[in-house]
Write a structure and sequence with these properties.
This protein has 317 residues and is mainly alpha-helical. Among the domains are: 177 residues, Cytochrome Bc1 Complex, Chain D, domain 2; 33 residues. The chain contains ten helices and six strands, in the order αβααααββαααββααβ. The strands form three sheets. A two-stranded antiparallel sheet has the order 1-6. Strands 2-3 form a two-stranded antiparallel sheet. It has a two-stranded antiparallel ribbon with strand order 4-5. α4 crosses α9 and α8 runs antiparallel to α9. β4 and β5 form a beta hairpin. The protein is extended, with a radius of gyration of 36 Å. 46% of the residues lie in helices and 5% in strands. One of its GO terms (molecular function) is heme binding. Belongs to the cytochrome c family. It is found in: Mitochondrion inner membrane. Keywords: Electron transport, Heme, Iron, Membrane, Metal-binding, Mitochondrion, Mitochondrion inner membrane, Respiratory chain, Transmembrane, Transmembrane helix, Transport. This is Cytochrome c1, heme protein, mitochondrial.
Length: 317
């Protein structure tokens, strides 16, 4: 029993001896204790694999370029005229919408566009604090009659509009809209700027692009020639022209001014969070400018110490 105890003492002392932290490079410890990993670089591959990978890369790049060229050629073969890029005041990274233009644009929609087009996803309350005051919006809402109910007797009734009501529809259903417009269905304008390629550039060009058809082009009765519309024949008559209305603030109501204001209004209607999104982006950039140097300092002077620490096992002598 005594002999077994004496033989176990060196082993126990060896197991109880602690590990120590040294400055031995980590790679030297693993190189001596672990087998070498295989080198999988491109230069070490056989010639056949190099040729295969190179051919695959060339074919992939060529296929992507061919697809892009075919797409551009298809766009160039379209029959409609592509709208130019206009310098909108709200198109900048930090630019906000012109709220005076939004107010005028709502006036254009109310007096010109609402006779045929609906905006069923926009409520009167959305105008508060954007283009009108709450009192002004209440007056605008009370101008319409809304069917509500049923009442205590089970009958439907009409009441003046409220802030929570949505913009009224010009037609009760799509069939009535088609009958009133010669078979064409006027689209809803709530998200028309996002739903059309080119956005407000397309809408502006469409509103101001009516002209006489060129020689050899015939447009059937009830349609109007517009080079920006697919097929060049549109069922909507020219909706705006010079002095089509009088703005409340006295701005001259030229055709381009009217089109610009209604396009700005439609941009806001499709993206009410436009200004808030850009403000949040600016705050994020300012916060990142402060946080990135701090994160770099923590990584360089704090985490690098822990990352470079080497732990080596010192075997007993």
């Amino acid at each position: 029993m005594a002999r077994r105890l004496k033989a176990a003492l060196p082993v126990a002392s060896t197991l109880l001896e602690p590990c120590v932290v040294t400055d031995v490079p980590l790679h030297s410890f693993y190189v001596n204790s672990l087998p070498q990993q295989a080198n999988m670089s491109f230069a070490s591959l056989p010639r056949s694999k190099k040729v295969a990978l190179t051919t695959l890369g060339v074919l992939t790049t060529g296929g992507a370029g061919l697809a892009l060229m075919l797409q551009q050629s298809v766009k160039a073969s379209d029959l409609e005229l592509h709208p130019p890029n206009y310098p909108w005041t709200h198109s900048g990274m930090l630019s906000a919408l012109d709220h005076a233009s939004i107010r005028r644009g709502y006036q254009v929609y109310k007096q010109v566009c609402s006779a045929c087009h609906s905006m069923e996803y926009l409520a009167f309350r959305n105008l508060v604090g954007v283009s009108h005051t709450e009192a002004e919006v209440k007056v605008l809402a009370e101008e319409i009659e809304v069917v509500d109910g049923p009442d205590e007797s089970g009958e439907m009734f009409t009441r003046p509009g409220k802030l929570s009501d949505y913009f009224p529809k010009p037609y009760p259903n799509p069939e009535a809209a088609r009958v009133a417009n010669g078979g064409a269905l006027p689209p809803d304008l709530s998200y028309i700027v996002n739903a059309r390629h080119g956005g407000e550039d397309y809408v502006f060009s469409l509103l101001t692009g009516y002209c006489e058809p060129p020689a050899g082009v015939e447009v059937r009765e009830g349609l109007y020639y517009n080079p920006y519309f697919p097929g060049q024949a549109i069922g909507m008559a020219p909706p705006i022209y010079n002095e089509v209305l009088e703005f409340e603030d006295g701005t001259p109501a030229t055709m381009s001014q009217v089109a610009k204001d209604v396009c700005t209004f439609l941009r806001w209607a499709a993206e009410p969070e436009h200004d808030q999104r850009k403000r949040m982006g600016l705050k994020l950039l300012m916060g990142s400018a402060i946080l990135i140097p701090l994160v770099y300092y923590m990584k360089r002077h704090r985490w690098s110490v822990l990352k470079s620490r080497k732990i080596a096992y010192r075997p007993p002598k």
